[in-house]
Amino acid sequence: MTDNEPIIDTSGLVKQYGGIAALQGVDFSVDRGELHCIIGPNGAGKSTFFKLLMGIERPTAGAIHYKGRDVTSLGSFERARLGFSVKFQNIRVYPDLTVYHNLFIPLRRHHRMKKIPGQVAELLGELRLSGTENETVSNLSHGQIQWLAIGMSIAAEPEVLLLDEPTAGMSDDETRETAEIIRRLSATGMTILVIEHDMAFIRDLNTRTTVLHYGRLFAQGTFSEIEANEEVHQIYLGTL
Ligand code: ATP
Fold first, then answer.
1. What's the CA-to-centroid distance between 23 and ligand 1, angstroms?
2. CA–CA dist 198, 51 (Å, integer)
3. How far away, in angstroms, is 160 Cα from ligand 1 center?
């Protein structure tokens, strides 16, 4: 991979579910280290796009390249090994275990035993969860559980992190803190793709943004450009 080659590149990505065309030929790329938001009305194809990127489902047509390598036929396990990680909306934490043990489980796959306490402390600091290590997860707030799930997703130090609606169900304060956490992770050089509905949050992230609509790439630009785009307003209002 050369420096100016995108880390992820999709070409002509199509996903057909029976008669439903969830994606109709998406050409998309993201640069190494970029923080990028993907928005679009309900049913636009955002989750489908993430599933194809993660290798959970295969495209009907088109290709996905990662660092110049064609990964279209690789499954999610192989893509995770190459450096992909995803945090879905329906998070998978262990509610009856402590915060420490929730992080211990993914960390243990990648680190020696003696390094784990330090790694947990570092993650908890990044995630605004310092001091909660001995709490049972079911006692945490909704926002804290979401942050813990992000922590579990980054325990393997992925190169690419996909976040599916990270602020769903959060209070305004938790949403602002989530933007702060994502900015901090982005500053470490991690490539981060975020699907979101919450416009205030996307405005806060203020980064390159792609709009999907009916399974197609409808618009792309800085958040200010997207916010000023009259047609984008119309698709959200349902008039386009
Ligand atoms: P939302 O914002 O509501 O989550 P989205 O932009 O993530 O929507 P997708 O969930 O990717 O959109 O769905 C795109 C289209 O594909 C929709 O019409 C949806 O009903 C359809 N679809 C998604 N998954 C399946 C499936 N497994 N089987 C059949 N149709 C599906």
1. 9
2. 21
3. 23
Residue 88 lies in a domain: no
Q: How far is the CA of 17 from the centre of ligand 1 (A)?
A: 9
Domain boundary among 157, 180, 198: 157
The residue nearest atom 3 of ligand 1, judged by CA position, is: 42
- Residue 150 in any domain: the answer is yes
pLDDT in tens, 60-104: 999 999 999 999 999 998 998 898 888 877 778 999 999 999 999
Residue 184 CA: distances (Å) to CA of 109, 123, 191, 192: 24, 12, 12, 11
User: Any residues with Cβ below 6 Å from ligand 1, and which?
Assistant: 17, 20, 22, 40, 42-48
Among residues 117, 89, 90, 91, the alpha carbon closest in space to that of 103 is found at 117
- Structural domain that includes position 40: 1-83+159-240
- For the stretch 122-166, pLDDT in tens is 999 999 999 999 999 999 999 999 999 999 999 888 999 999 999
Q: What is the pLDDT of residue 235?
A: 85
- Tell me which amino acid residue 203 is: R
